[in-house]
Write a structure and sequence with these properties.
By secondary structure, the protein is α+β, with helices and mostly antiparallel strands. The protein has 2 domains: 49 residues, no CATH class; 148 residues, Alpha-Beta Complex (tt1808, chain A). It is 26% helix and 25% strand. The strands form 4 sheets. Strands 3-6-7-8-9-10 form a 6-stranded mixed beta sheet, with helices on both faces. The longest helix is centred in the first third of the chain and has 20 residues. The protein is globular, with a radius of gyration of 17 Å.
């Protein structure tokens, strides 16, 4: 039985997303890596508690398509690397988050080399989280707080239900973009721009 206080501290997520082994508040980074290595789920470590990421096929499809667009831009300008939801990130408070997409600048990689370690020690300059029906506003707020406290400069929160993008340059006061707007990379990815409509277009394709 997951107590209500714990769920509230995790942003009001569903109890079914909280792992009970190891017991909540006692899990370690080693536990996270062991469970994620099974490849039947993706978990994050939040205040000693393992929580499953909310997974949906529509979120995955959109994330892959957008990651490809970002990757082409980043490679063209030799800016760094783009990674997906297989990259655990160690936050400054000890939490381990796994965004849907991350841009890591070469400036964040000592010697311009990709590290050989299971958990990246920093928060990327750009983080993209795609929220679906399984995510809560409280959960997304806590994610943003961890990212910016750990060094992230830009967060894109893409809402599948609303088909909007909230652009955060800090924890609060986002720019809300609709399908009529353009999404740009700000000072993190200067020169990058794409119509918000194009982000969601992949979900409307037919065979």
């Amino acid at each position: 039985m997951i107590d209500a206080d714990l769920l509230d501290r995790l942003g009001g997520i569903a109890a079914t997303r909280v792992l009970t082994e190891p017991p909540p508040r006692t899990a370690t980074e080693a536990d996270l890596l062991r469970i994620n290595s099974r490849r039947d789920r993706i978990c994050e470590l939040i205040d000693g508690t393992l929580t499953e990421k909310s997974l949906e096929i529509r979120k995955s499809i959109l994330s892959v398509e957008l990651a490809c667009v970002l990757l082409r831009f980043v490679q063209l300008h030799q800016l760094g690397v783009v990674v997906g939801a297989g990259c655990p990130l160690r936050m400054s408070n000890g939490n381990i988050r796994i965004p849907d997409i991350s841009f890591i600048s070469w400036d964040q990689l000592p010697g311009d080399e990709i590290p050989d370690e299971p958990v990246f020690h920093s928060s990327p300059f750009l983080v993209v989280d795609v929220s679906g029906t399984g995510n809560t506003p409280g959960e997304m707020r806590l994610r943003r707080k961890d990212y910016f406290a750990s060094g992230t400069r830009l967060v894109w929160e893409i809402s599948l239900p609303n088909r909007t993008v909230r652009v955060y340059a800090s924890v609060k006061e986002p720019r809300l973009l609709t399908v009529e707007d353009q999404l740009d990379g700000g000072t993190v990815l200067p020169g990058f721009s794409m119509p918000v409509r194009d982000i969601f277009e992949v979900l409307e394709r037919r065979g």
